[in-house]
């Protein structure tokens, strides 16, 4: 078992000692040669080290260095070779899982959206995602190959350039979004837009060697077309987007105004990337405006509710959590900071994260709480919460991540898979939410924790997950969701995220060569986007001009932003040209252009002094408080 200290296994700490102790015992008993011959690697090392030490120059410091290097060779875990063999075996098992799911989709469901593995048929589910009541379903919609779009980045990670290129070619020739279909903005964004953008970035990177023919940005063109069809959803008084959009006709008449925190606060990665790639700032502007409005609606405790009205800006559900309805809001704040380098994202995330630790955490568990009072509301685990340890790894909170992950895994072991909801106060499954739809979150956190700790216990966790999926959910036609984890009754649905996330994170757990030498962030749907410095330095001019390095004439002095330079205007950066100035990295504009306010939350940070502005008694932001 992993303990709470950065995932280290106490047994691992003893293994190198065991090797040396055994060798000492063997030497005392006259069995030194027998011991060495029992480990072929050691017999080779002995000869090498003898030659290496004899070649060391007779200088005290160099002799000491040679001795250190020599000792390093002896402190070898004899199980490391076995570990590598096991990782390769598990990698191939996951590869088999992926292709069993993918091949059956391509055979029985493509070009429809998702596979029905029990009946070996299909479902055009893009218009059904998030649509629990199955309202306003299109009559002539025949699918958008959602599972293929979602599988492209996984095919790239598995090294299947042939199938990857075939998929791009088919999509570029056949996929269209000019369809009379009402879709969930959040689901379509993370699955389709995110899948297209990620695959475009992978295809256009020559170092990946995924394209043998020519690639002319076909996927980016599709992504841009889809992004433009999203924009009418943001035309609300608050800037918060409608949850639903008709891809052909825009927002429908009498459309519901209710949405979730995740639904309007988890768009910035995909739409921000689209703006960077196309040069069109509208996508990022819309997503960022919605994110900022959502943050303005937080309580004084820095908590946000679960559902809200996009027209009135009023909260509907006050219960706050890290689970369903809110989860990816936290995730996208941190990942947007990593991807785009904008300090606003970090400030928002830090406040939200600290609030979650203060009001939700109870030992290794996280319950729900009222956003206004902070008092607990529901003591339950939701399977979506299993992403949280992975997010904590990115923050660096490894001990807390270990603690929560271990409890999630205990629940997995107890039932064989992770139920959708588990009542913590009664230690039982929620009576009406017993299903497991092949979710990836536990595998995702296991991957992150292994990357952070290299504790092989997490490989054992991954192996258990793989065995469970093959034992309980694998059928001749693919992998089926579990309708009831107490009976393991199956449901006729293979979600596209099983290929986009579940198989991908399990594969990366056992073979991280794809991410070993590059920095990627993964969207909430598991699509990789490479972190590049240029995206930190070049922000959409029309929206972020207040944070750019400007000259007196108004021309762009540099493509580096003040945020990345971290400078204040009072610092004389160039005494020879005093007429030039740089705006402060700490500058945060007031929420209203006319500087009117109701509370201090609506006031920003002064660009000249880097001091917090406050709201006066007559309702205007300014530097009213003396130093």
Strand content: 5-15%
For the secondary structure, the number of strands is: 24
**Widest β-sheet, arrangement of strands:** 5-6-7
Largest sheet: 3 strands, antiparallel
The class by helix and strand makeup works out as: mainly alpha
Family: Belongs to the glycosyl hydrolase 47 family.
Subcellular location: Endoplasmic reticulum membrane
Cofactor: Ca(2+)
Binding site for Ca(2+): 524
Descriptive report:
With 627 residues, this protein is mainly α. Helix content is 46%, strand content 11%. It is built from 22 helices and 24 strands. The strands form eleven sheets. The chain has a three-stranded antiparallel β-sheet. Strands 12-13-14 form a three-stranded antiparallel β-sheet, with no helix packed on it. The longest helix has 29 residues, at 80-108. The protein is globular and about 70 Å long. Keywords: Calcium, Endoplasmic reticulum, Glycoprotein, Glycosidase, Hydrolase, Membrane, Metal-binding, Signal-anchor, Transmembrane, Transmembrane helix. Its main location: endoplasmic reticulum. It is found in: Endoplasmic reticulum membrane.
């Amino acid at each position: 078992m992993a303990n709470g200290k950065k995932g280290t296994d106490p047994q691992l700490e003893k293994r190198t000692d065991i090797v040396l102790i055994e060798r000492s015992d063997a030497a005392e008993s006259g069995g030194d040669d027998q011991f060495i011959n029992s480990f072929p690697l050691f017999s080779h090392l002995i000869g090498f080290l003898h030659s290496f030490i004899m070649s060391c120059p007779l200088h005290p410091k160099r002799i000491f260095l040679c001795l250190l290097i020599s000792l390093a060779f002896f402190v070898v875990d004899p199980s490391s070779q076995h570990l590598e063999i096991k990782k390769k075996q598990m990698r191939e098992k996951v590869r088999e899982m992926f292709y069993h799911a993918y091949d059956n989709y391509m055979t029985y469901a493509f070009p429809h959206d998702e596979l029905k593995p029990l009946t070996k048929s299909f479902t055009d589910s893009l218009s059904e995602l998030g649509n629990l009541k199955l309202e306003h379903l299109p009559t002539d919609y025949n699918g958008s190959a959602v599972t293929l779009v979602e599988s492209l980045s996984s095919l790239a990670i598995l090294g299947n350039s042939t199938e990857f290129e075939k998929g791009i070619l088919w999509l570029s020739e056949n996929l269209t979004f000019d369809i009379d279909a009402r879709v969930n903005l959040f689901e379509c964004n993370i699955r389709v837009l995110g899948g297209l953008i990620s695959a475009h970035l992978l295809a256009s990177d020559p170092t990946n060697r995924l394209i043998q023919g020519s690639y002319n940005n076909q996927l980016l063109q599709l992504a841009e077309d889809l992004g433009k069809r999203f924009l009418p959803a943001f035309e609300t008084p608050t800037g918060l987007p409608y949850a639903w959009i008709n891809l052909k006709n825009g927002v429908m008449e009498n459309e519901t105004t209710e949405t979730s925190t995740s639904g309007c606060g988890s768009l910035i990665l995909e739409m921000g990337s689209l703006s960077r790639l196309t040069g069109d700032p509208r996508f990022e502007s819309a997503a960022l405006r919605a994110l900022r409005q959502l943050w303005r609606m937080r309580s004084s405790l820095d908590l946000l509710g679960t559902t809200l009205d996009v027209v009135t800006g009023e909260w509907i559900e006050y219960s706050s959590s890290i689970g369903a309805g809110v989860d990816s809001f936290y995730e996208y704040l941190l990942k947007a900071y990593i991807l785009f380098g904008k300090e606003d994202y970090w400030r928002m995330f830090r406040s939200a994260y600290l609030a979650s630790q203060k009001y939700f955490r109870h030992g290794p568990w996280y319950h729900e709480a009222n956003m206004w009072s902070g008092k607990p509301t529901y003591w339950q685990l939701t399977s979506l919460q299993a992403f949280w340890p992975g997010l904590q790894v990115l923050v660096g909170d490894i001990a807390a991540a270990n603690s929560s992950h271990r409890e999630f895994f205990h629940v997995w072991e107890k039932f064989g898979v992770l139920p959708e909801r588990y009542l913590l106060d009664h230690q039982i499954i929620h009576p009406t939410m017993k299903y497991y739809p092949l979710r990836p979150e536990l595998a995702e956190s296991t991957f992150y924790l292994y990357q952070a700790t290299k504790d092989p216990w997490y490989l054992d966790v991954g192996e258990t997950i793989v065995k469970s999926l093959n034992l309980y959910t694998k059928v001749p036609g693919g992998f089926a969701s579990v309708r009831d984890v107490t009976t393991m009754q199956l449901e006729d649905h293979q979600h596209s995220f099983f290929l986009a996330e579940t198989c991908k994170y399990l594969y990366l757990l056992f073979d991280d060569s794809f991410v070993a030498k590059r920095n990627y962030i993964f969207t909430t749907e598991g699509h990789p986007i490479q972190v590049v410095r240029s995206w930190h330095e070049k922000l959409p001019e029309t929206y972020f001009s207040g944070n750019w390095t400007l000259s007196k004439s108004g021309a762009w002095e540099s493509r580096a932003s003040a945020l990345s330079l971290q400078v204040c205007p009072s610092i004389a950066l160039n005494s020879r040209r005093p007429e030039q100035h740089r705006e402060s990295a700490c500058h945060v504009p007031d929420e209203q252009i006319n500087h009117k306010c109701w509370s201090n939350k609506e006031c920003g940070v002064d660009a000249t002094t880097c001091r917090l502005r406050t709201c006066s008694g007559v309702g205007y932001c300014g530097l009213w408080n003396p130093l």
